[in-house]
Amino acid sequence: MTTQLSDRVIIIGGGLAGLALAQGLQKADPPIPFHIFERDTSATYRAQGYRIRIWGDGADALKHLLPEHLWTAFEATCAQLADGARKLDALTNEVGEMAIPKGALPSGTPYNADRATLRSVLLAGLEDKISFGKVFEGYEVDKNTGAVSVQFADGTVEKGRILVGADGVRSVVRKSFLPELKSLDIITSGEHGKQLKLFSEAIYFNRGLEGAAGFELPPNYIYWVLCLRSDLVADGRLEERNFLNLDSTESVKLAGDLTADWNEKVRSVFDNQNPDATSTLSFFICDPENFKSSWENLRRERAGEPVVLLGDSAHPMPPVGAVGANTAFQEASDLFDTLVRMYNTSSPSSTGAEEELRNYETRLVDRAIESIRKSTAGAGNFWGMRPLAELKPAMVWR
Q1: Can you give the pTM of this predicted structure?
Q2: In total, how many domains does the chain have?
Q3: Is the CB of residue 314 less than 8 Å from the CB of residue 46?
Q4: How is 382-393 classified by DSSP, letter by letter?
Q5: pLDDT digits (tens, 9 = 90+) for 40-72
């Protein structure tokens, strides 16, 4: 059996959601043809971020997508869970109780995943289905055949049946497909917003499961996030654009400069950090009303385009309360089921391809609106984020 390249699913972005979707497509019976195009030049091009927690529906969705041996590997590579939370005065090193607002976290027991290790698990078996160093530029839809042609910065063009934008919070696919959706800068208010906040957790892996996992576990480590407003950076000469594009060495220096007057025991977290694993990230969010209206206008003006979005590409939100990744995995699972129905024309539930994609979008919007609201509440509780009406459009650079 041969597959025409124009019949495949083109996935832009090799992050967690795009890779999880790809694993499902490869597991399908029969497999659904696809290829992933990632702008980074390799899987290890940059620091892959932080530990993430995967709960309930998000975990069920990931299990639905993965073959059994990779689900086993995922479980075996997750870290142990610590009970409760404490707060620490950074200047005095005094320990106090930390109250978690009711409803701030999902119910149930989460998986505590190392993001880089999880990405390695999700990449397994996809080595010949992903191309690195491919920077998305735009797309065109053939009005006669419905095929989509994707243009890349290197001048190449790839054709497929469906285009999936899974290229993250700075999604270039979204910019082309859903230009009305605005990303908002997360701005904090009052004294609450002027404080540096350090969130940290000791990550311990189950070494006895390493053999069963089939993947090398990283050394145990302290995961930490230093949260601040970009306009409070000590060096006033540092423009926001540069602030959001610091490399690992510059990020290490910034963390040290910002915490120079902290207690030396607390500062040991930064003094002993792994520079290769340190990065500076920006957090954005979108307004539920703008989000909903953008999708409604899209259906009226661009109905029929074989393009869909997934995860942060569809709805920027801060990583608070384990909402973002779990929502993305649920969408990947939903999109996988949608594509199975589209490609399996003998399925009794098959409808038109356009209707299937629009139904997926409807479910995405309904699910994402609830997730955005939860994320908004979490950002208010933990960071003192201002009301959405007071937030300004973000300057999002590629």
Answers
A1: 0.88
A2: 1
A3: no
A4: HH-BPPGGG--B
A5: 988 877 766 678 899 899 999 999 999 999 999
